Amino acid sequence: MTDGAAARVDFNAPTLIGRERDYVLEVLHGPATQAGNGRFTKRAQAALEELLYADAARRGGVLLTTSCTAALEMGMLLAELQPGDEVILPSFTFASTANAIVLRNAVPAFVDVRADTLNLDERLVEQAITPRTRAICVVHYAGVACEMDAINAVAARHGLMVIEDAAQGMFATYRGRPLGTFGALSAFSFHETKNIISGEGGAIAVNDPALMQRAEIVWEKGTDRVRFKRGLVDKYTWVDVGSSYLPNEMTAAFLLAQLEAGEGATHRRLAMWRRYHDLLAPLEARGLLTRPCPPMHCGHNGHIYFVLAPDATARARWLAAFAEAGIGAVIHYVPLHSAPAGRRFGRPTGELAVTDDVAARLIRLPLHLQLTPEAQDRVVELLERLAAR
Ligand SMILES: *Cc1c(COP(=O)(O)O)cnc(C)c1O
Question: Does the pTM exceed 0.90?
Answer without folding.
Answer: yes
